[in-house]
Amino acid sequence: MVERVTRGQGAGERAPEQAERVSAVREPQPVKAARPAKTVRSPAKAVSRAAPAASAFDKKTIALVYDFDGTLSPRPMQEYSFLPQLGLDPKEFWAECAKVAREHEADPLITYMHLMYRKAREKNLRIDRKDLVAQGAAVELYPGVKEWFDAIGEYVKIRAESSGITLRHYLVSSGLAEIIEGTAIRRHFTNVFASEYWFDAYETPFPKRVITDTGKTQYLFRINKGIEDLGQSINDHMPESERPIPFSNMIYFGDGDTDVPSMALMRKSGGHAIAVHSPGESAKKCQELFRAGRVDFFAPADYSRGSELFRRTCLLLDRMLGDIRVKEEAWEMGHGP
Ligand SMILES: [Mg+2]
Questions:
Q1: Ligand 1 geometric centre to CA of 33 (Å)
Q2: How far is ligand 1, taken at its centre, from the CA of residue 256, in Å?
Q3: For the whole model, what pTM was predicted?
Q4: What are the structural domains, with CATH classification, of the chain?
Q5: Fewest CB atoms less than 10 Å from the CB: which of 14, 148, 246, 255?
Q6: How far, in Å, is the centroid of ligand 1 from the Cα of 102?
Q7: pLDDT tens digit string along 46-101?
């Protein structure tokens, strides 16, 4: 959906680091209550290195970050249940969103969030938070997505040459957090950053958080700096050495123009990016992204073990794991007796 609504905004090339300069100034705090991440640990080495965290090399968390619509799921998530429930044709709905946004010079994402509920009200349909979460069950996922998280976890576990490698998955989406919450794969994500509604503060649900394409980069910095509590500012300077997940330990997965700021930030900061396209459909957009140096690889969105996407992701993971091992060795030389 976001593709359709935001295309033509010309926002793609804005400096991603703007995300760091957004608002208030507060001391960064440790990550608050992210879900426990999967840890791949060699028991023998873990015992021999039972030193306090600060006295060991600690940049050993890998983060795989995904866009949702068009990347993990073939269509915009609203098309599986919300729009059919209102008897709306998706094409017409997105066209109307784009038209209204253009005419009023409104933010396209706020416009779609508003129009969804204006349409529901016109039909006298009350769709609350609980209903949206339930709609998540109807969202279709690309082949292999459900098994991907465990399969990649196993791969990292087998290939990890240094102990204590932690693998995390994150979602950064302009779609709706409520619908994502109801999908079968929510439990695999350490954190989900997505647009969200306030349901009870107003007569019509009101956007609480809107994640635009450039706004997505803020959440990449949050993962990088370990400031995942959205109540805390992301803007204070933090030296690279203090950031828990270097960009070089991240891969961003996206499918189109709305991912360009995130992909650009990743590539510029030493991270990685992969573009996907619907299996059996044109790879034109991916080829453009590849030629423009936005992504390391592209592949059909088939997440099954052994697919091109799986194989290319594993290649990047191998490089990342080797890199982590090299940095750890150097760190130990620098901190040895
Ligand atoms: Mg997308």
A1: 27
A2: 6
A3: 0.83
A4: 37-77+141-335 (3.40.50.1000)
A5: 14
A6: 21
A7: 333 333 445 789 999 999 999 999 999 999 999 999 999 999 999 999 999 999 99
